[in-house]
Write a structure and sequence with these properties.
alpha/beta, serine acetyltransferase, domain 1, UDP N-Acetylglucosamine Acyltransferase, domain 1, 2 domains, 6-stranded mixed sheet, 15 strands
Length: 272
Amino acid sequence: MAAPLENIAPCDPVWSQLREQAQGIALSEPAMAGFVYDTILQHERLEQALSYHLSRKLGGEELGQLAVRTFIDEAIVADPQIGAAARADLSAVFERDPACHSHADAFLFFKGFHALECHRVAHWLWLNGRRTTALFLQSRVSECFAVDIHPNARMGRGIMIDHATGVVIGETAVVEDDVSIMQDVTLGGTGKEEGDRHPKIRRGSLISLGAKILGNIEIGEYSRVGAGSVVLKPVPPHCTAVGVPAKLVNCDCGERPSQQMNHIIEEQDNTG
């Protein structure tokens, strides 16, 4: 029997909507009923469903599904902020991605969401001295989802990684709340330097497809980086950077670029 919806809906609207949508899938597409039951409907909490779903994807010859699920569960229980962030991330994908028509779409099938939630577990493992397990998880995520986020990187909540293929985020990178990142983005270093060497992406920013941001530089809050740009210098808040190497154009880029998801750059005044 599925966990009763009435016991969940009042206190967890994201989970309630996800379950309702899963029930709709099971009724409208009977061939998928077993999958959505196992992945969503048999569980009482979003955290349980997430742990089950991710461990099924990541389990393999080196570590089986049960072993992977054990340390995912451990992280989720120890740090309730992982579950809270997952709900914010799920909402961000649903609200910003026009190809996403429900929370269930994102939860079941969108690998950017999967990779980000796996990173949250790996980050907890890293901070708690379990670096080998964290690096194992990073490696499996890279193999399964084509996303490589170092376990030490700090990720806020309400983040969307759209399409996700080819995303690389380095060890000392910081991505704050409400950021949107497209496919093939690199937040990398500039060479063999050590220490704090990766970008800091402030809240509300939009990093468009194929952008490369290199070095310990800051992309200011509510900024945009245009498609294919190579950013080597800081970008002030509320500005747009585009080109190779990137230059500032049209600094009025809207109030919430990560949510508006406007990738069109109209070049006006070059400011350097």
